[in-house]
Specification:
heterotrimer; A mainly alpha (440); B mainly beta (417); C mainly alpha (215); B: 417 residues; mainly beta; five-stranded antiparallel β-sheet; C: 215 residues; mainly alpha; Fumarate Reductase Cytochrome B subunit; 0% strand; binds iron/sulfur cluster
Chain lengths: 440, 417, 215
């Protein structure tokens, strides 16, 4: 099998370059065989046997479209260049091939599942790509920054090495801050028997703490009986799901659900994040053995929708700047929340222009799926894969891109910078606290 | 176990505090807690000058603090809270603060016998455990899971034993975590260590360990089981001898192992939280015999009744003959005892409590925002504004109820007949 | 030769096709069972919803994006399946051998349908060569399969118009038709059998589990 020679193949990443040096043919074969025959069964076989090599999935993929239809970036080509070969050779491949497979699977596919909506057979390319990631993960060949994030999950149960004291301290600090805006605001910690446990992803306490304060204000105004854990289990994010370390993924999700059960809440409301929703509601429970999440989980989009629709929160004055939406794959294609998202944005903002394509058909921002977590070495490649996203956003003429997802948020900010779009990204949370009616 | 013999078990129903009156006294009153014996009700309160203290029944602690939270009663009825003064944190016990202050202190725990109080702390950027106000001699760069020995004399925690540079994945996989017991770290290093647990006498500590990307086992006093697994959960000691039981994964199957040997023959889709009967003879665990179905397995036999949503940790009766657990189906909670579910389901339910003889099971439950005491599936007290888990008298023929109704806090001892 | 292909070989072809298909279905079923989530998430309503969208011309966004290809693909598949079943010639053979017959299409129509299959097949082949995206994922076997699929139609046409030696042509026609039937379960043409399953699963996962559309 000839390896692909491209600028991407020359990117330096110790997570790939150093780790393949330790691979032996036996080890590769053993791991590939294990994953293909012990961990996967029906779907893998069905998808490999059914794919007619028609290429109809190509135009679904933003990486393919952004790269002037580079054949190697069509979804089926990504599978051909990785999994087909592994299956065909029964794992008799070189370490360099594993490096290439890792590069493709981790940095050139966002596991966004848009292509499944374009394949006549509904072949789940993202699932096949995840099998490749799983193989790479077991071989230890994972982009360094993504692996580090997974290591953080393993050691700390959160995504960003946040110490337990930092977590609690940040909540107490944000409670104080929010109290200056609306007196009496609290972040009730460890309140057993509250209706709602609110969970977030680690970047909130680490770098975007005001989002926590904002939520405290929203909860206060809406009169929600809520709590947050002061123990591990507060972080709903899960990059281990994307690095292919499913044992760590399961561990993180189990703790999250057990924390909700320990706090005796009736549901979890989660902050504005897409991949976290996927991990907490689908991939995590599935690996652990739950068909559906054991306790209802409400994504922020739905939560805001209910608050506004029911009148628990009233909008005082709508936001004036022209806005558009980035539909997060994992909550729109992954949960059908596109209409509710539009309802919320229309209630909050005066001047909303939709993107095209939108809703389930929106282009992936290429940040979720673990790609942004592959870190600086891969940013350029990610940006090139994002051209259609930039064009799509620019066409709306909006000044603000609203996206209820941390990955989209960072991804779109990168795109705005790289393509000089002159826009800003905001969470709904930020606009909601600005526009909602506050008690006297 | 705490001794409830000296509590007032005379049949009575007394009002100990006027909740509405307490609330009117302060700028803000946070969540109420009550002592196990029911004699005290307390809450963190905010004073006019925005300082905090704790109010207890109709009293309040003399000192005030910049912050006060995590107000909890110990099993021995001592009232504790994490408090901050001059940007330093410590613990206040019945209103008196510990001498030692910390940059931060949190996660207060009590030993089973109610004698000891521990917490985690951070000082000079190092982390450790403080037991009864005394910090460990050594601090660590990071700390995570921790526990107290049943007699309250020892503490153990998972700690990071070397500093890692940012994104040092190689250093991480070389092993940076271990377990420290009373501040002394095991010489063995692991990729990860989680959930330390003490043996009954406190002489042994077991923990989940990770020894390769996908290789897990259990270490006891630092020594790993020879056998390695695809994953591991929740090691616990068998009372009576020093052996350790844990849920382990091999291939895609889960089962229980003891000291590295398989003891349950059945393959489960998932299994966790193994619990032992007090005599150490029987084991119950939360198990999923097939995808999407959950139940309790006792001595490797799953209950016939399976639940879709969730099953929580099994609870043995004191004689070890019966097992109860919280179960959830169709988003409703209930309790199942020996595989039989209570007839009614609830919006929320608390842990089942066995009477000393094992005949009766009682639990706190919630429906439509009101609380009820449920005994063997039947409501025996309903419509409380707030309620704390009921407690059986030592002879098992009375029950202590602690609740708020009509704005007043009641301590009621009621006979069971 | 003719006697052999017309008799035992046809028998064999149908047996291989039917038993092979059953075997593949049973085999994939047992594999899917090992893949714990599949049957747990499979849902009739959402599975059907997806299948119906995808067997309706222009029922999915991707079909609307490439109308020419969609029309060609639907015509190809429709004619590929319908023509041999309702062809007058085939019906006569059934009648001769078994005394059964059913409604048939006028020969003029089936001729056109056959030509459509062959023409579309050639365009597919051309697409595999001309479009770099498809070329990259095309293997030699893709051309071979296409050839086997088209062969009975080409030889059928030749035989009908008596272009070459009729007897040879009709022998080749039956031979290639049998080959085609026999390889269905064992090659990528199995997509004909698996379509319903993979579509139903994806439809269920999108609809039942994720509350979203998959077209
Ligand atoms: S990035 Fe999305 S559309 Fe592209 S191959 Fe991956 S899952 Fe498919
Ligand atoms: S995945 Fe689907 S659309 Fe893509 S080449 Fe295969 S069959 Fe065609």
């Amino acid at each position: 099998m000839k390896l692909i020679d491209s600028p991407e193949s020359k990117v330096v990443d110790p997570g790939l370059d150093e780790t393949i040096k330790k691979l032996t043919p036996e080890k590769i074969k053993r791991v590939v065989d294990h994953v293909l025959t012990k961990e996967n069964a029906g779907r893998l076989q069905m998808y490999i046997d059914t794919c007619v090599h028609c290429g109809l999935c190509a135009e679904a993929c933003h990486t393919y479209l952004s790269r002037d239809k580079d054949p190697n970036f069509s979804p089926v080509a990504k599978v051909k260049n990785t999994l087909w070969e592994l299956v065909k050779q029964k794992g008799d491949v070189s370490p360099e091939f594993i490096r290439q497979a890792a590069r493709i699977a981790f940095t050139e596919c966002g596991a966004c599942r848009r292509c499944s909506m374009y394949c006549p057979f509904g072949i789940d390319i993202a699932y096949l790509i995840m099998i490749v990631r799983r193989i790479c993960s077991l071989l230890g060949v994972v982009p360094q920054y993504l692996q580090d994030t997974t290591n953080s999950h393993a050691a700390t149960s959160n995504q960003m090495w946040v110490h337990q004291d930092e977590w609690i301290d940040t909540l107490q600090w944000q409670e104080e801050e929010a109290g200056f805006e609306i007196p009496g605001v609290r972040i009730p910690l460890e309140k057993e028997g509250a209706d709602v446990m609110y969970s977030v992803i680690a970047p909130e306490p680490k770098i975007l703490a005001q989002l926590l304060g904002n939520m405290a204000m929203i909860m206060k105004v809406a009169g929600i009986d809520w709590t947050m854990p002061a123990t591990d289990g507060w972080d709903n994010s899960n990059m281990a799901m994307y690095s292919g370390d499913f044992e760590i993924m399961g561990r993180v999700e189990r703790l999250h659900w057990e924390t909700a059960a320990r706090l005796k809440v009736k549901k979890i409301v989660m902050g504005e994040c897409g991949h976290a929703f996927r991990g907490a509601v689908y991939d995590g429970p599935k690996w652990l053995g739950w068909k559906f999440p054991p306790i209802p989980m409400v994504h922020a989009i739905e939560f805001y929708y209910d608050l506004i629709k029911s009148g628990r929160i009233k909008i005082k004055e709508k936001y004036k700047e022209p806005v558009t939406i980035q539909d997060p794959c994992n909550t729109v294609r992954g949960r059908g929340l596109g209409d509710k998202l539009r309802y919320v944005v229309n209630e909050l903002c005066e001047d909303f222009t939709d993107v095209s394509p939108n809703q389930e058909h929106n282009y992936c921002c290429m940040a979720g799926g673990g790609t942004i977590n592959c870190g600086p070495p891969w940013k350029k490649s990610r940006m090139i894969s994002n051209r259609v996203k930039a064009e799509q956003l620019a066409a709306t003429g909006a000044k603000i891109v609203i996206t209820p997802c941390h990955n989209c948020h960072s991804g779109i900010e990168d795109i705005i910078g790289y393509y000089n779009l002159g826009m800003h990204v905001k969470f709904i949370n930020e606009i909601l606290v600005e526009t909602m009616e506050r008690p006297e | 176990m705490i001794n409830t013999k000296n509590w007032d078990w005379g049949i009575q129903n007394k009002v100990l505090a006027d909740i509405a009156e307490i609330k009117s006294r302060y700028q803000d009153v946070h969540e109420f807690v009550v002592s196990p014996d029911g004699e005290k009700i307390a809450a963190p309160v905010v004073l006019e000058d925005d300082t905090f203290t704790a109010c207890v029944n109709n009293d309040q602690w003399p000192d005030t603090f910049e912050k006060l939270w995590y107000l909890r009663f110990s099993p021995g009825n001592k009232l504790t809270a994490l408090v901050m003064s001059d940007d330093e944190w410590t613990l206040a016990v019945d209103g008196r603060v510990y001498e030692e202050n910390y940059e931060y202190a949190w996660d207060v725990r009590f030993s089973e016998n109610g004698e000891s109080i521990s917490m985690l702390y951070k000082r000079d950027n190092l982390y450790g455990v403080a037991l009864n106000g005394k910090p460990w001699a050594n601090g660590f760069v990071a700390i995570r899971d921790y526990c107290l020995s049943p007699d309250g004399k020892r503490t153990a925690a998972t700690v990071q034993v070397k500093t890692l540079d940012e994104a040092d994945v190689f250093g991480f996989f070389a092993g940076a975590w271990s377990v420290a017991v009373d501040g002394k770290v095991w010489p063995e290093k692991f990729i990860n260590a989680w959930k330390p647990a003490f043996s009954k006498d406190g002489s042994l500590v077991a923990a989940e360990i990770r020894t390769d990307i996908c290789e897990y086992s259990v270490a006891v006093n630092g020594k790993s089981w020879e056998k390695k697994y695809g994953s591991v959960w929740d090691p616990v000691f068998r009372p009576g001898n020093g052996s350790v039981i844990a849920a382990v994964k091999e291939g895609s199957n889960w089962f229980l192992a003891e000291n590295g040997s398989r003891i349950w023959g059945r393959n489960y889709n998932q299994i966790w939280l193994p619990k032992l009967s007090p005599d150490g003879k029987r084991i119950a665990a939360v198990a999923s015999p097939e995808f999407g179905k959950w139940t309790i397995a006792v001595d490797d036999r799953p209950w016939a009744k399976l639940f879709d949503d969730m099953v929580l940790a099994p609870v043995f009766s004191p004689d070890g003959k019966r097992v109860a657990a919280i179960v959830k189906e169709n988003n409703h909670w209930s309790i199942a005892v020996d595989g039989k579910t209570w007839p009614e389901s609830y919006d929320m339910i608390w842990d089942p409590v066995f009477s000393p003889c094992g005949k009766n099971v009682v639990a706190k439950a919630e429906k439509n925002g009101r609380y009820a005491v449920v005994l063997n599936g039947k409501n025996i007290g309903t419509n409380y504004d707030a309620l704390w888990p009921p407690i059986f008298s030592p002879d098992g023929d009375k029950i202590l109820l602690r609740y708020i109704a009509d704005g007043k806090y009641y301590r009621e001892v009621r006979p069971l007949n | 030769m003719y006697e052999f292909v017309r008799g035992p070989l046809v028998w064999l072809a149908f047996i291989v096709f039917i038993l092979g298909s059953i075997y593949r279905l049973l085999q994939i079923r047992s594999q899917l069972k090992k893949d714990k989530v599949v049957f747990s998430y499979m849902n009739f309503k959402y599975g059907m919803r997806s299948i119906l969208h995808w067997i309706t011309p222009f029922g999915a966004v991707n079909m609307r994006k490439r109308p020419a290809f969609t029309i060609m693909s639907f015509l190809f598949h429709f004619c590929l399946i319908i023509t041999p079943i309702f062809l007058l010639g085939h019906n006569l053979v059934w009648y001769e051998s078994w005394g059964i017959h059913w409604w048939t299409l006028p020969e003029r129509i089936t001729n056109i349908m056959t030509i459509i299959v062959v023409a579309a097949g050639f365009i597919f082949a051309l697409r595999r060569i001309a479009d770099p995206t498809v070329r990259l994922v095309t293997a030699f076997s893709d051309f071979l399969l296409l050839l086997i699929v088209l062969a009975p139609f080409i030889t059928g046409l030749f035989a009908y118009y008596q272009a070459f030696d009729y007897k040879t042509m009709i022998t080749l026609h039956i031979l290639s038709g049998c080959l085609w039937l026999m390889i269905i379960p064992f090659t990528r043409i199995v997509h004909m059998i698996f379509f319903g399953i993979s579509r139903a699963y994806m439809g269920s996962e999108f609809g039942y589990v994720r509350h979203a559309k998959d077209w």
